[in-house]
Design a protein that fits this description.
It is a single chain. This protein has 71 residues and is mainly alpha-helical. It is 87% helix and 0% strand. The chain has 3 helices and no strands. Helix 1 runs antiparallel to helix 3. The longest helix has 30 residues. The protein is elongated and about 55 Å long.
Length: 71
Amino acid sequence: TDPGLAKRITVEEQKYCLLSSQIEKNHKERVLKKQKESVETHEIHWKLLNAMKRINSHTCEIADVILSAEW
C-alpha cells in the first residue's frame, strides 16, 4: 500500500504499452517475412506477450485502487 510506488507503476505503464506494441509489431514483421525462428516460436511468443499484458493490466488495477484509496 505504497502510493508512491503505485504512482510510479501508472507512469511506467505508458512506457510498457509502447514497448509492448513495438515488440508485437517487430514479431509480426518477422513472421510475415517467414523468418524460420520467428515462425517456429510464434505461438509461445504470442502467449508470453499476452501473459505480460495481463500482468501489466492487473498491476495497474492494483495501483489504481491504492491511488484512489483514502489513507
